[in-house]
Amino acid sequence: MRRPASEPADPPQRGRSALPSRDEVLAFVGGAAAPNGEKPPARVTRRDIARAFGVTGEQKAELKLLLKDLQAEGALSRGRKALHPQGRLPSLVVAEIAERDRDGELVAKPVEWDDDGPPPRILVRRPRDKRSRTPAPGLGARVLMRIDFDPDASGKAPAYSGRVVKILDRLKPRLYAVFRREKDGSARGSPVEKRASGRDYFVPANMTGDAEDGDLVALEPLRQGRLSVPSARVAETLGSVKSEKAVSLIALATHHIPHVFSEAAEKEAKAARPIKLAPPREDWRSLPLVTIDPPDARDHDDAVHAAPDDDPANAGGFLVTVAIADVAAYVRPGSALDREALERGNSVYFPDRVVPMLPERISNDLCSLRPLADRPALAMRMSLDANGRKRSHSFHRIMMRSAARLAYEQAQAAIDGNADETTAPLLDSVLKPLWAAHAALKIERERRDPLDLDLPERKLVLDREGRLKSVRWPERLQAHQLIEEFMILANVAAAETLEARHSPLIYRAHDAPSAEKLEDLVSFLGTIGVKLAKGDRVRPAHFNGALARVKGEAVEALVNEVVLRAQAQAEYSHENYGHFGLNLRRYAHFTSPIRRYADLIVHRALIRALDLGDDGQQELRGGELAQIAEHISAAERRAMAAERETVDRLVAAYLVDKVGATFPARISGVTKVGLFVKLSETGADGFVPAATLGEDYFRFEEATRSLVGVRTREAFRLGDAVEARLVEAAPFAGALRFEIVRDGAAARPARRARAPRSDPRAKKGKRR
Asked: Of 582, 507, 508, 578, which Cα lies nearest the Cα of 543?
């Protein structure tokens, strides 16, 4: 007869081991030491209890019954071969990194949780040893954790905390979808990513979590048969897609971009006070530096000035000054602000919002170079000769006072004879010397001959609700080119100075195109009669020659786009391999520390190397710089993808009401399965399935980048101008589907079209 678990064990007999009491078992499983002082392991098993309490022989069977009783009454839970107190997590647990708290710390949740109520939150402790080889997990990662339980935890602080022992799976398979509730309590999720667009997921009623109709949710697909409807569970609810900033919310979620500052970072930013003028900072407040930015810029981190050089040995030369906001004065290495900035890597710019790298107290206030306000800055002063060649340069830590905040169009208008009340007093003393110095720089630029792509940027204009109102293509002005060239000057000078001081730094590097991409480009240009003349080593000038040949022709925009695609992607690197596009041997980012962490690293390195204060960069080894460079390069790519997808979604939402309308477009891509088209007016990208091109069978010809009808020889080539009718728009996915219009009518779908018998693929019955 089984003894009730509430009854004490029989007194131990001489020569036999003692069966532990109910309370002793619970205490041991909960983490308390046994009477002999033995501490429980991370995962307590029946064998561990028997060994700790000296249970042997026949009493092992009684111990087994005792443990079963404790489980039956709910006092103990059994995981995978291990025991733990009911309602409590074991000391070693598999968890998922679920969120960040207000302090920016990672919070995990157990993967397995069978009790009633929500699963407990686990604060992820940072490794004490900075040399720990366990990498930091990202959101969505599945990890093995060793945790502690604090029964006295109060407030919002998690009762559990622990450290990551091992990362089991960095990112679980997840997709983001718009949640739509059905009448029976179940739901469907419409994916917001292009590759999954048009394939809804079924969400069972007991797996919808706390999601409401219209919410953006993270779904985890469930296992299913090959022919069954895809199903998933709601893993996380992120917010309503009905909000005015829903489009960028989708990008933030799908790319795991941190956008809420930690409480510690906000506290540091709030406590920051304006920097005072004190050595080694120099007083340059009388120098009429000006900022020239887009009219809607929120932060202003660079200012410029130019004047004729009064050195007789430099007749016709200039002294150029570039002053950059001294972010390093406010963001110290190792601080909460610094950790937050490194995690973000850069600011992210969406049409409807900005996710800044630093809190607004820093980025939009203390470090923004506001007109007539004292601001600390790190300045580069350079002597140029009459042909724009650099003679010398120096760096200074200064206090400055911007004379004016100008927009590109405003400054250009003043130079063109339309000065306003702000620019008129600055025209002769400030603006004309800037343009004269830029004229000299253009001589040097032509000699350097960097890659000269002409790629107009579109500007999305939104209404108050965050919806797209119109698309503009702003003209590229001399004012844009002036600021760009001045910033390049400063960036080169920063790299040269740090190299000369043998100071490790992060370069902005850009490799030459790969042989494969170069071969593809040569092949494509040959199809439109353009030869890419190149020698043993390709240079930017070779591309510029090809671009010059199509200047003013119908294919100009396409060739610029294709040449851009052939280039390698620029990145941050602790090793220098030059900047191919700019045709420079060394280059670093120095001019935007408010929005790029790489620039902040360079600022600190200059402060340390030039002895400009005690807030410079701590000495970093090559390995540490390499890790930082890799991280911020990945953050940059993440931001670019998020920004691009957000624009696609806004444009798709704008075109929803225009389904059935026809637009002038150009073929921007050709594949075996169809065409990609780009609309001329909005720059929207969409897809035309090959099955809708007509009743002919269209074969992909790689040499000419075209789809060619086997019977009719009708061809659709890369760069062709076409009329495209919008068939379908999926706003949340940013996906558009078109069909080609011929003579006012769309081609009839050819879903049953087959390849001719002479085609070897005809036997398979497949269309390509």
From this structure: 582
Helical ranges in 576-731 per DSSP H: 597-609, 622-655
- pLDDT tens by residue, 82-104: 565 555 677 777 888 877 776 66
d(CA 38, CA 167): 29
Instruction: Kindly report whether the peptide bond that precedes residue 295 is cis, defined as omega within 30 degrees of 0.
Output: no
**How many alpha carbons lie under 13 Å from residue 509 in its C-beta half-sphere?**
17
**d(Cα 27, Cα 22) in Å, to the nearest integer?**
9
- Where residue 379 falls (left for φ over 0; alpha for ψ -120 to 50; beta otherwise) is beta
Which one-letter amino acid corresponds to residue 57? G
Distance, in Å, from the CA atom of 709 to the CA atom of 372, rounded to the nearest integer, reads: 67
pTM: 0.74
Coil vs helix vs strand at 675:
strand
Give the C-alpha separation, 546 to 539, whole Å: 12
The token pair at 424 is 């008129």
245: three-class secondary structure by DSSP: coil
Number of helices (H) and strands (E), helices first, in the chain?
A: 15, 34
pLDDT digits (tens, 9 = 90+) for 27-70: 777 767 777 777 777 667 778 888 888 888 777 777 877 877 77
- pLDDT tens digits along 6-20: 333 333 433 335 688
Strand 215-221 to strand 175-181: parallel, antiparallel, or no bridges (unpaired)? antiparallel
pLDDT in tens, 646-705: 999 999 999 999 999 999 999 988 999 999 999 999 999 999 999 999 889 999 988 788
Residue 110's pLDDT is 85
Q: Tokens standing for 32?
A: 């308390």
- H or E stretch including 150? none
Q: What is the mean pLDDT of residues 383-402?
A: 97
Beta bridge partners of 346: 596
Give me the torsion for CA of 98, 102, 106, 112, rounded to 10°: -40
Count other Cβ atoms within 10 Å, centred on residue 547: 17
Which residue type, as a one-letter code, is found at position 590?
F
Are the C-beta atoms of 302 and 377 separated by less than 8 Å? no
